[in-house]
Amino acid sequence: MGSGPRQKFDNPVVEWVDSRLPLFTLMQREYGAFPVPKNFNYFWNFGAIAGVMLVTMIVTGIVLAMQYTANTEMAFDSVERIMRDVNFGWMLRYMHSNGASFFFIAVYIHIFRGMYYGSYKGPRELLWILGVVIFLLMMATAFIGYVLPWGQMSYWGATVITNLFSALPLIGEPIVTWLWGGFSVDNPTLNRFFALHYLLPFVIFAVVFLHVWALHITGSNNPEGVEPKDEQDTISFHPYYTIKDSVGLLVFLVLYCLFVFFAPDSLGHPDNYIPADPLVTPAHIVPEWYFLPFYAILRAITFEIGIPFTDIVFITAKLGGVIAMFGAIALWFVMPWLDSHPVRSARYRPLFRAFFILLVIDFVALGYIGSQPADATFFGMFALSYVGLLCTAYYFAFFIVVLPVLSKKEKVKTLPNSIHDAVLAKNKSHS
User: Fold this and answer.
1) What are 29-46's pLDDT values in tens digits?
2) Catalytic amino acids?
3) Domains in the chain, ordered, with CATH?
4) DSSP annotation of 7
5) What is the pTM of this model?
6) Rounded to 5 degrees, what are φ and ψ at 202?
């Protein structure tokens, strides 16, 4: 991070510490006097909110791990003991389980905000890639965490999702056997999942540090997508954005607490309050809501790819679904190069804005489709799976077709000369 002369502090204790280990100088430089664009809106709050939720998940997770037993015979009962016998155990568990959902809410808003305002464009490509890495680590951590209570949906979700790797040619079966620690989801599976679930949040924290470091090197994007030109375009992060972030965080935490204390089970699945039974398969196996769009993409691929009118198959339906699911996230990594248009913000790209709004609607629709049974129908007229296939097709078309075409063909609105001019123009229009 930045370097420069050390600031002297009035507090003698702070001064004594800082003269030997300049932590306070670093904080002042990077989060105090650090210049940022003066036109941030409330969508920029969600990076800080996601950071607070990460800390919340780590703290509650450490305390819960002290009471949890990673054994198939005792895991479910240990969770019940946390809920019933441990002081405030019910609150810690609900904070952790609902915290996962709210962490994903913050991150999803953060990601789609970045897409809308072009925060993935140069020179912030690596910043964006680190963000996608964080998202993948979150998905892995959330999935293995969902297995730990060892309820019905935990067990069968682990069985179905891990078994997907068996579709990979040659290496699929060995990977599944290694993940399971045997030939079925059993005690070794639970043990290694618990170990990984404890470890990965600290890996996420390390990547978040790199993410913030990269942000402070390249500087923040802004709603106008115009780089700051002089001091008129920026303000210090503190106190202006610390106050603004605090207001957004307070509202977010109020909503979070409403779920924790008044609707703690509304975001979960009732089948997970039944102990895991390998002999009884739930009627409808679904992952947590934040996986549903990608689960719908997985299920949308029901056809094989091969030579027509022969028995030669190159890609089975199962393998095709796995490729599509992981490919849906892999496209985010290359988004800075798929969209090479020089204008960042969708405010000045009307066609991009229209297609992006359709993408958001499409993503929500995929989430709904993923929550429904595979044989569900659309208003009783035709199979919902067909709608899922259409939504999947548009999702991939947006990244592979729409972005490259718009990069070359889209005509944009006139950009402001500076952030300062844009702010003044906005204030005049409101007065």
Assistant:
1) 777 778 889 989 999 999
2) 216, 220, 244-245, 288
3) 32-430 (1.20.810.10)
4) P
5) 0.93
6) -70, -30
